[in-house]
């Protein structure tokens, strides 16, 4: 009771604000207010998860079952601002909140019951040390909590790569080729894996990680990201 009173007092003096619009959040809101959540460009990829813009993007690069993004990415749009807050403004809690939200959305589809494991795309240890967290892992945590499916950091980034931002599709593919490896003593035999990242552009990073998982025994790899370009 005393702790609850202290929390109420602190919330009164230092209210939590929406990360997008700075409105004070009510008790039932987390990171984003209801108004901003309602204005986000949520995609319908999960309704056609085996045949959409994202599956077409990685066709020929990897054998996958499904690909989904929670939000449509648009330059200077709200999804880009969210990713910027998550990656560069020290808001790991935002990744977890988005993961929980997306998990609640895809619960409407029975295919989520097929997944045995959620695996985040890794950051190089130097970059993770500098940032303090891996935004994709925070997204995986939220999905794990919502879907009640364990998540594990099974992939290691063995080479520090340059930023992908201004590279072409071919350059991105070359930039991540042979970059990832599986953690030691990992057994993925017959496992259906959901591989998650913060954003999909060309799909090069996700494909490289998925190929590592498949090469080490995974039965199937599906993809999910916070945001991606293309049609909703």
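-> sequence recovered:
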């Amino acid at each position: 009771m005393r702790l609850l009173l202290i929390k109420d007092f602190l919330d009164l003096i230092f209210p939590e604000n929406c990360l997008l619009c700075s409105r004070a959040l009510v008790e039932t809101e987390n990171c984003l207010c209801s108004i901003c959540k309602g204005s986000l460009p949520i995609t319908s990829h999960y309704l056609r998860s085996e045949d959409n813009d994202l599956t077409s993007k990685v066709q020929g690069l990897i054998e996958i079952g499904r690909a989904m993004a929670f939000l449509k990415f648009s330059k200077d749009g709200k999804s880009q601002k969210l990713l910027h807050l998550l990656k560069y403004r020290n808001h790991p809690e935002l990744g977890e909140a988005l993961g929980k939200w997306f998990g609640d959305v895809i619960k409407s589809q029975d295919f989520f019951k097929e997944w045995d494991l959620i695996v985040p795309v890794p950051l190089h240890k130097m970059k993770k040390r500098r940032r303090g967290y891996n935004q994709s892992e925070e997204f995986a945590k939220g999905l794990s909590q919502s879907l009640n499916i364990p998540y594990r950091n099974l992939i290691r980034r063995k080479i520090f790569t340059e930023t992908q931002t201004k590279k072409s599709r071919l350059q991105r593919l070359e930039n991540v080729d042979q970059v990832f490896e599986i953690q030691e003593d990992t057994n993925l035999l017959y496992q259906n894996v959901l591989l998650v990242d913060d954003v999909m552009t060309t799909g090069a990073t996700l494909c490289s990680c998925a190929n590592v998982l498949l090469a080490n025994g995974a039965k199937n790899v599906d993809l999910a990201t916070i945001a991606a370009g293309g049609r909703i």
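The radius of gyration is 18 Å.
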